[in-house]
Amino acid sequence: MNKKAFIFDLDGVIVDTAKYHFLAWQKIAQALNINFTHEDNELLKGVSRVRSLDIILELGNVQASQEDKDKWLIQKNEDYLSYLVDMDESEILPGVFKILQLLKEKNQGIALGSASKNARPILEKTGILSYFDVIVDGNDVTNAKPDPEVFLKAAQLLHIDPKNSIVFEDSVAGIQAANIGEMVSVGIGEKTILHEADYIFKDFTEIETSFIEQLIG
Hints:
The chain has helices spanning 18-31, 38-41, 49-59, 66-84, 96-105, 119-125, 149-157, 172-180, 209-216, and strands spanning 5-8, 109-113, 134-136, 165-169, 184-188, 199-201. It is an alpha/beta fold.
């Protein structure tokens, strides 16, 4: 059987921690009198923490010193982590567990490729850490998506050619990163937003076993 690399983003793909990121960023924005909406939050998908703060400051036309930025970045992460304390397996998005089990049964390479610096504790709390052969997160890379570094590194650690890799992503930047890396891109979300992906599903419940077997080849 062919062995492929199946690489998953974390936030919005495996778990919905995006809502916690939003709450933490909104708290910072409100303190700075910046109106930060769910629509604005779309701009932060797949983007590093530092760049996310810059985007929020730009939205409010706020100038800030590096010292203030560093303080807000620490505060944001502390607030975000406080929301994660009570995470458990119920946070896993519908259909994800079934796909992970199938890939494990088929002896496929499974990796996480995420900008999150909290990937390991999240996978531990949700009880699925053991499904991943490789974890590449924000602590391991220097370039943010759409640079394909995070996915290329995951494929490399799995000893699988990037062209034999499949990426599951919910952000435009993530889909672009997969495409630049010459990997198969599978969008999880809205077709209007993720139209650059090779395949698009609203969520994992729409993904049939036959589709995964087709990707394995």
